[in-house]
Amino acid sequence: MIAQLPDDQRIVLTGVGLTAPNGNNLAEYRDALLNGKSGVTRYEIRYFGETLAGVCHYDELRYQRRKELRRGTRAGSVAIYCAREAVLDSGIDWENTDKSRVGVYVGVTEHGNVETENEIYLIKGYDYDTQYWTHHHNPRTVANNPAGEVTLNMGITGPHYTLGAACAAGNAGLIQSVQMLRLGECDLAIGGGVSESIHTFGIFAGFNSQGALARHEEPAKASRPFDAERNGIVVAEGGCLYTLERLSDAKARGARVYGEIVGYAMNSDAYDFVLPHPERQAECMNLALRRAGIAPGQVDIVSSHATGTISGDIQECEAIRHVFGGDATALVNNTKSYIGHAMGAAGALELAGNLPSFRDGVVHPTINLEQIDPECQLNGLVANQPRERGKVDVILNNSFGMLGINSVVIVRKI
Predict the structure, then answer these.
(1) Sheet with 188-195, side-by-side order of all strands
(2) Tally of CB atoms within 10 A around 263
(3) Angle at CA of residue 380, ends 4 and 345, nearest 5°
(4) Residues 242, 351 within the same domain
(5) In this structure, is residue 7 part of a structural domain?
(6) Per the confidence metrics, is the pTM higher than 0.90?
């Protein structure tokens, strides 16, 4: 039985703001997912050279001046755009909102590498004379920067921080938002995740040295989770932030509700720096289901984490089979096949792409799935074409990361 809480403890999603490599708002993004539109393109970055990446093209000047962009960071800019768009989408009377009761909780995979690499590159031209090092470096690289830039831009005086949760961070930002609302620490939360990862050459070099960086003659086909010919990760930037409120508050103002977060879980593999552990992933899914009071058979969509690595995809499929069994009715899809791996933003973006299924009953597919790896076989895997589900009531969103951090968020239709 689905757990029933009083309305002031039930937390709902009321606004979505995002930028992805294939869309700059939920409508554009959803249209791209239903029509197989990839956002992966050729990309050049210093030292590493030409590679492939998911690159965003949002309007940077919509909510910031050029001077603010120069002073701040790409992650901060993405976060500001997404936060502003989420608030606009929510219909909240922002001008009359008590900004001291707004909390900002932004998940990131890493932060500061881009800014440090840029400064080292610049002072190289001055024979590494550190007197040319920017005085903006420290506020740019502190871990709370993306969330902090949002508060500065929007005049928010409530709590803010980022959550370093590797590639589970988008879910972590949502989970933190739920907890802080239930604790009464804020009345409105802005939560999710952002990534500026494509602007650091180190991440490409690192994945390349692991043999985990995807390559393909056609950029749009490079990210291919579950496919027998997959060869690694496509690095992407992006962001997705939500407004979250107590259901009682949302009802009071007549808000449109995208869905209710009814369950969540985070745990640790305690196994390896990089390699996942399917047993721990399964435990994380089961814990989220128990907290939600939902049986596996009640789940309509499983939004998979799969990144396109050989072992990672296999391990997650093993975990999904363990939780849902051979007779599962849940449909499984993957968003990274369109946009690549948006790191800290991944979980939040992947959930967003599935939320419209509550309304239209359609499940977007995994694209580039030409020949499934037998070890990735899943009964409900949606491949290449959208699937009509008819009725979608429950979405389970997986998001896992390095050093064995696992996160699951379950959202129910209201």
Answers:
(1) 160-164, 102-108, 188-195, 238-246, 11-19, 259-268, 405-412, 394-401, 301-303, 331-333
(2) 24
(3) 65
(4) no
(5) no
(6) yes
Owner of token pair 């309304």: 359
- Between CA 311 and CA 313 the distance in angstroms is 6
The catalytically annotated residue of 284, 341, 364, 376 is 341
4: confidence class by pLDDT, cuts 50, 70, 90: confident
Answer whether residue 2 is part of any domain.
no
For residues 230 and 267, state if they share a domain: no
Clarify whether residues 29 and 168 are in a common domain. Answer: yes
The count of domains in the chain is 2
Distance CA 364, CA 356 (A): 10
Look up tokens 């993004």; give the residue. 29
In a shared domain, residues 32 and 130: yes
CA distances from 325 to 2, 198, 278 (A): 20, 37, 14
Last residue of a domain, one of 218, 252, 286: 252
Domain ends where: 232, 252, 272?
A: 252
Q: Is 322 a catalytic residue?
A: no
Range of the domain at 127: 12-252
Distance between CA 36 and CA 32 in Å, rounded? 6
Model confidence pLDDT, tens digit, residues 236-261: 999 999 999 999 999 999 999 999 99
Dihedral in degrees, nearest 10, Cα atoms 205, 215, 354, 244: 10
Q: What is the signed CA dihedral for 270, 272, 275, 280, rounded to 10 degrees?
A: -10
CATH at residue 355: 3.40.47.10
The pLDDT tens digits of the residues spanning 368-382 come to 999 999 999 999 999
E strand or H helix at 396: strand 394-401
Do 289 and 241 lie in one domain? The reply is no
Enumerate the H helices of 159-306 as residue ranges.
169-183, 201-209, 247-252, 278-292
Angle at 276 between CA 381 and CA 403, to 5 degrees: 135
Residue of 305, 317, 364, 376 marked catalytic: 305
Q: Do 220 and 300 fall into the same domain? A: no
Binned at pLDDT 50, 70 and 90, residue 3 comes out as low
Helix (H) or strand (E) holding 51: strand 49-54
Same domain, 141 and 196: yes
Active-site option among 167, 186, 284, 376: 167
Same domain, 156 and 297: no
| Residue 305 is a catalytic residue | yes
